[in-house]
Each structure stands twice: as C-alpha cells, then as structure tokens.
Write a structure and sequence with these properties.
heterodimer; A: mainly beta; B: mainly beta; seven-stranded mixed beta sheet
Chain lengths: 113, 114
C-alpha cells in the first residue's frame, strides 16, 4: 500500500545546530513530494516541493530537501535552526493520478535555547 | 490577496448534533479540499471539490458530506456527531487541484464534540 513515513515523532535540536527531518514513501514510481510546516495555532504552509529535475530543492525560510530515488526518501534539512523554527513538519506525497496528498504523521521540532 | 478563510474557528457541539463548517478559498482558486487532523491519525483527506463537483473522496463515513458553490466557497457538514469527530478541520484551496498546484491552507476549525 502507498504510504508516507516520518520515523521521528519528536526531534530536539539546539538553536544554531543543523537539522534533518526524515521522510520515506512507499511507491513504485516517482511521486510529487512536499514539505509543509504547521506552527502552533496556524494552518499549514508549504516549505518546498519536488516534481522533477534537480533533486536538491530549495524552499522558504532557509530549508532545503533532497530527493533520493534509490532510498525513496525526501529528507528536509536546514544548516542552522532558529527558535522560530519550532513547529510541526509534515511530509506529503502525491502518488497517483487522483492527485490526493498522502501525509506523513508529522515530526514535532523542539528547539533548545 | 486574501488567504483561505474558515469559519467558525472554534466550535463546541454535543453528540448527535450536526455541524456545518465553511471555507472561502483564495480568489481565483477553483479547487477546495478538506482534511481532518487529529493527534492520533494525523491528516486525513476527506474530499475535494472542483467546479462544484466532488472530484475525490477519502475513506470517511457518509455522515461527512460537503458541497461547493458557484463562487468556489465550500461547506462541510457532519451529521450525528460522535466524540471521535473532535478534530481540527482544515480546508485547502488550489488553482486547479492538479498535482503541481500548491495547496494553500486555512487556519482550520477546531471542533470539540462533548
């Protein structure tokens, strides 16, 4: 079955440290890939997306993600986190012609001062 | 350009009642999708409307229904509320609802069923 896995429910990172959030999907072909962020009390905001082309994608707020076909992964990275990055991050994937987003369970990012 | 708006923001109902939630998409967007977000289940797709027609549907019981009006505004209705329907209901709009159209989300309606 098609699925999206975010293996880390919570991640704690010190302010200024680097960050990597993991996302894996189960699908035979290349899907459309998205990362969204949800701050407390806010709706979801798109950070970046991958459809084709360069496998390293730049997004807003200094985030980037790399699509690795061989690992069926689309990990989100940031070289230096800020306290304002504390939020929940969702990986989402479109894997079929219905164009429905399938969501990971989310990773809550906690920033240590 | 105004974002996606959802009303009401908060709602408290009791079991057995019914509720209607409203979503106004970004001007020019013709696709509206609805999601249920709960701590245990994450984000679950409810349905998508495009040009007043339901185009996609998730795996929810018939108590959950929706519609879209000619101005692209959408409503979602839940009848015979159950405790498990307590959730954040998110609406998202996009230009045409195809794969490479970014979805823009509203702030959600927090529904509490007592």
């Amino acid at each position: 079955a098609q699925s999206v896995t975010q293996p880390d429910i919570h991640i704690t990172v010190s302010e200024g440290a680097s960050l990597e959030l993991r996302c894996n999907y189960s699908y035979g072909a290349t899907p459309y890939l998205f990362w969204y962020v949800q701050s407390p009390g806010q709706g979801l905001q798109l950070l970046l997306k991958y459809f084709s082309g360069d496998t390293l994608v730049q997004g807003i707020k200094g985030f980037e993600a790399e699509f690795k076909r061989s690992q069926s992964s689309f990990n989100l990275r940031k070289p230096s986190v800020h306290w304002s990055d504390a939020a929940e991050y969702f990986c989402a994937v479109i894997m079929d012609s219905n164009y429905q987003l399938i969501w990971g369970a989310g990773t809550k990012l906690i920033i240590k001062p | 350009k105004a974002g996606v708006t959802q009303t009401p923001r908060y709602l408290i109902k009791t079991r057995g009642q019914q509720v209607t939630l409203s979503c106004s998409p970004i001007s020019g967007h013709r696709s509206v999708s609805w999601y249920q977000q709960t701590p245990g289940q994450g984000l679950q797709f409810l349905f998508e409307y495009f040009s007043e027609t339901q185009r996609n549907k998730g795996n929810f019981p018939g108590r959950f229904s929706g519609r879209q009006f000619s101005n692209s505004r959408s409503e979602m209705n839940v009848s015979t509320l159950e405790l498990g329907d307590s959730a954040l209901y998110l609406c998202a709009s996009s230009v045409a609802g195809t794969s490479n159209n970014e979805q823009f989300f509203g702030p959600g309606t927090r529904l509490t069923v007592l």
